[in-house]
C-alpha cells in the first residue's frame, strides 16, 4: 500500500486552511481526527472514536511514559538505520509533529 500517495491525495482533496479560523486548535484537532478516520475507513478498520470530544476524554487520562518515549525513539532510530526512512525525512517529520503538538495543545 502506498501510504504517502494516499496521504497526498487526501491532503489535496481536503485542504488544511487555517485562515479565518477563530479556534485554530479545534480546527486542527478536527482536521487530524477526520484524516485519521479516513485512513482507518480506507483500511477497513473500525473507527475508535466518533467525535473529537471522545478522543480528548480518552487521552486526557493517558500518560506517555518515559519507557514508551524511549521505545518510540529506538524504533525511529532503527527505521533510519535500516533505511526505511531517511534522516532528513525523520527530521522533517519531527518538526511537523512538534508544530502540530503546539497547535493542538498536546
Task: Tell me what you see in this structure.
The chain is mainly α and 106 residues long. It has two domains: 1-62, no CATH class; 65-106, no CATH class. It has five helices and no strands. The protein is globular, with a radius of gyration of 16 Å. The chain starts with a helix and ends with a helix. 2% of the residues are buried. The mean pLDDT is 86.
The fraction of residues in strands falls at under 5%
- Tell me the count of domains: 2
Which blocks of ≥5 consecutive residues have pLDDT under 50? none
Helix content: 55-70%
Order of helices and strands: HHHHH
Number of helices: 5
Radius of gyration computed on alpha carbons: 16 Å
Concise description?
69% of the residues lie in helices and 0% in strands. It has 106 residues and is mostly helical.
Topology, element by element:
Layout: H1 3-13, H2 24-42, H3 52-60, H4 66-81, H5 87-104
What brief labels describe this structure?
106 residues; mainly alpha; 2 domains; 69% helix
Amino acid at each position: 500500500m502506498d501510504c504517502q500517495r494516499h496521504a497526498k491525495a487526501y491532503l489535496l482533496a481536503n485542504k488544511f486552511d487555517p485562515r479565518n479560523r477563530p479556534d485554530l486548535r479545534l480546527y486542527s484537532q478536527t482536521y487530524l481526527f477526520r484524516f485519521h478516520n479516513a485512513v482507518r475507513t480506507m483500511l477497513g478498520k473500525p473507527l475508535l472514536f466518533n467525535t473529537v470530544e471522545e478522543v480528548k476524554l480518552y487521552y486526557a487520562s493517558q500518560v506517555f511514559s518515559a519507557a514508551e518515549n524511549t521505545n518510540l525513539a529506538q524504533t525511529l532510530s532503527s527505521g533510519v538505520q535500516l533505511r526505511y526512512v531517511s534522516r532528513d525525512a525523520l527530521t522533517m517529520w519531527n518538526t511537523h509533529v512538534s508544530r502540530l503538538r503546539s497547535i493542538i495543545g498536546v
